[in-house]
Design brief:
The complex is a heterodimer. Chain A is mainly beta. Helix content of chain A is 3%, strand content 22%. Chain A has a five-stranded antiparallel sheet with strand order 4-3-12-11-9. The model of chain A is unreliable at 26-39 and 66-107 (pLDDT under 50). Chain B contains eleven helices and 20 strands. The chains are: A mainly beta, B alpha+beta. Bound molecules: zinc ion (2 copies). One zinc ion binds next to loops of chain A.
Chain lengths: 240, 430
């Protein structure tokens, strides 16, 4: 179950069952503590920090208003475990995958790396005729060592404080990638899994046609390919 | 159904709307591949051939003999095991083969017997198509699964039943079988036969010369036998506060499906598409939604699913995003534009021909002229050719035409009949 920006409960996780609003990228509900952003103001509809006249996420117009009324600010956190009593906050689809946490010491790099390429074959498979996504003529491959408990795949967003380890907004930016599109998770046995927390366009594996289910960990092996966006293929490599 | 085809849905649209814009148009292309073509699809199939044997079929006599030959050719095309029957239609419906009111499996023996029974047919009596359809409906009732296909051939108007009786019989047949209709000669009514074929998801055509019937019957039967799945439906979801303005089939012919909706739940409805083989059809969908905010994320305004029973075999999204960039919002998707033109073409022909019949020559000239221009513009050569038999064209680009004084009845009917046949966009467009 997912929740759309207007608050409807939806079985479909890409667009709302009720109103059709996009929910793959759904922003978090208004936070407990007033924070951040240039003005500190947040969108009354979706809680994203204000950057300009229109909300970056839901298009709320700050000049003329016209969204839902601003909910009253929630009480300060009563307990250290959860910031609000809002059950939605626990729904991983309705919030960004990795809210900022207390800094953890940088763990040592594992034996794994992700190789990121612009993949012509994948692009030709998913981009249908008539869509305007031109395959980038120049896109060097990147090798990113996998470290820590999680490695996020997505697009950087200053306003949301998002800096995914595998940042696909670096030019040439893949236009089909969500802010937090997928996450690689380290397992105790030294292997990795991938989770799609509800990206707009889905994540596929090894040339598959069917996107992996949302919020389900899928184990990865050496050489497995994770496809996101309109041309990105990320191959997992075990180094030792 | 051992080998089910692979279905795909493709959506062509411009998702951008101007501020305050409410109408979203999209062309949905449904395509199936991988269905075995020709002989055996593995799907069970039933076929009923209905031949008009009213008295007029004897004038000229070659109508009856050609119809018999055509039906015999159709029987020959049935593959072994297909359940079939032949029915003769006059003021009432009569079993030709088998004698009992039932379908029998095709085999060398039953095909021979059926052809012999056809050879003994004589023409007498009137025309009551509702009764013919009712008998076909009873025959298919015992074979509710698989492909259910009928061919109905007539040469006259439905004179021996009230229009209400025909309407009732058609309504009772909807969803029970698919029926391709053919008119032979020039004494039948285009609108009447169109109503039957359209409701029963079949094709409608005119067979001007009796000699052409045989090839046509064989082709219809082959097409029906080539279907791999029966009873496919298009399921359309729309968001709350949205209104589905229309759902039209636009290729291979114009067919408004809007009124055929069966509600599935509060926001979804099914539109029956009949049986499918290896083929591609296009649908034009128009949704009206409350205006969204400029700059907001795109929304899904229609979720199109192809249903095979309860199974979703393909799906696609119609999206909307509001923008203040006029360059984006004013662009019309070429496929949407093309089929809007084809719908206008069909309407102009039908209105123009009706006006001509009623002696309103100014309207007829204007409408048929517009049709000429549209046919020319869209590259619909078949229709352009048929229009040329009804009007003299001075300038196809602007649609300047003069009505012809003497028009062959067959040419006029043939134009009317085929007015709804559409063509794909020209190569390079859309
Ligand atoms: Zn909603
Ligand atoms: Zn917002």
């Amino acid at each position: 179950m997912a929740t759309c920006p207007a608050g409807h409960t939806s079985t479909a996780t890409d667009y709302c069952d009720v109103c059709g609003a996009g929910i793959g990228e759904a922003p978090s509900p208004p936070p407990a503590s007033p924070v951040t952003g240039a003005t500190g103001e947040r969108c009354p509809d979706c809680g994203t920090p204000r950057t300009e006249r229109f909300c970056e996420d839901c298009g709320y117009d700050y000049a003329v208003g016209g969204g839902r009324p601003t909910p009253p600010p929630a009480a300060p956190p009563p307990a250290p475990i959860r910031s609000t009593g809002d059950p939605d906050e626990e729904d991983p689809v309705t919030r960004d995958w990795a809210p900022a946490k207390a800094p953890v010491p940088e763990p040592p790099a594992t034996d794994w790396a992700a190789v990121v390429i612009a993949d012509r074959e994948y692009h030709d498979r998913v981009v249908t005729e008539g869509e305007d996504f031109t395959f980038p003529p120049y896109c060097p491959s990147r090798r990113i060592p996998l470290a820590g408990e999680q490695v996020r795949i997505g697009r950087r967003s200053v306003s949301r404080g998002l800096a995914p380890e595998i940042d696909l907004s670096e030019p040439p930016a893949d236009p089909g990638v969500s802010h937090t599109h997928a996450v690689l998770l380290a397992k105790p046995d030294g292997t990795w899994t991938v989770v799609d927390p509800g990206s707009t366009n889905g994540t596929t594996i090894n040339e598959g046609d069917t996107p992996i289910p949302v919020n389900v960990e899928v184990p990865l092996r050496d050489g497995d390919r994770v496809h996101v966006g309109v041309w990105t293929t990320i191959t997992l490599r075990r180094l030792r | 159904m051992s080998e089910q085809p692979d279905f795909s849905i493709r959506i062509d649209q411009n998702k951008y709307l101007p501020q305050g814009g409410q109408e979203v148009h999209a062309v949905v292309t449904v395509e199936s591949t991988g269905a075995p073509v020709g002989v055996s699809t593995g799907a069970s199939a039933s076929e009923v051939i209905i031949i008009d044997t009213s008295g007029s079929m004897d004038y000229p006599r070659n109508k009856m003999t050609s119809a018999i030959k055509a039906a015999q050719a159709a029987v020959d095309t049935l593959r072994d095991g297909v359940n079939f029957a032949v029915v003769s239609g006059s003021s009432r419906a009569t079993m030709v083969y088998p004698r009992a009111e039932e379908l029998v499996p095709a085999s060398a023996r039953t095909r021979t017997e059926a052809k012999a029974a056809l050879g003994r047919l004589t023409a007498t009596g009137g025309t009551a198509m509702g009764a013919w359809l009712s008998l076909a409906g009873r025959l298919f009732a015992r074979h509710p699964d698989g492909i259910r296909h009928a061919i109905l051939l007539t040469d006259g108007k439905n004179q021996h039943e009230t229009p209400e009786q025909l309407d009732q019989a058609v309504a009772a047949s909807v969803g029970r079988f698919v029926c391709d209709c053919r008119g032979v000669g020039t004494d039948w009514e285009v609108a009447e036969l169109r109503k039957v074929a359209s409701a029963l998801l079949g094709s409608m055509d005119m067979v001007a010369s009796p000699e052409a019937l045989e090839a046509d019957f064989r082709a219809m039967t082959e097409t029906a036998m080539g279907k791999a799945v029966a009873d496919v439906a298009l399921r359309v979801w729309t968001p709350q506060n949205a209104k589905l303005r229309f759902v039209k089939q636009v290729l291979p012919s114009m067919e408004d499906l809007t009124g055929r909706r069966t509600d599935v739940d509060e926001r979804s409805g099914d539109y029956p598409l009949g049986a499918w083989g290896s083929e591609s059809r296009d649908y034009h969908v128009c949704v009206e939604v409350p205006p969204g905010e400029v700059g907001a994320r795109e929304k899904r305004v229609a979720w199109i699913k192809l249903m095979l029973g309860d199974q979703v075999v393909a799906s696609g999204n119609v999206l909307a995003e509001w923008t203040d960039d006029e360059a984006q919002s004013t662009r019309i998707n070429p496929k949407v534009a093309h089929y809007t033109g084809q719908a206008e073409l069909a309407e102009n022909i039908q209105v123009g021909l009706q006006a001509r019949k009623e002696g309103d020559l100014d309207t007829a000239t204007a409408r048929l002229g517009r049709a000429v221009a549209l046919a020319h513009e869209s590259g619909n050569e078949a229709i352009a050719g048929l229009l040329g038999k009804v009007v003299d064209v001075d300038d196809p680009a602007t649609g300047r035409v003069r009505l012809k004084k003497d028009v062959d009845k067959a040419d006029e009917m043939s134009l009317d009949t085929r007015s709804t046949k559409t063509v794909r966009t020209r190569k390079g467009e859309g």
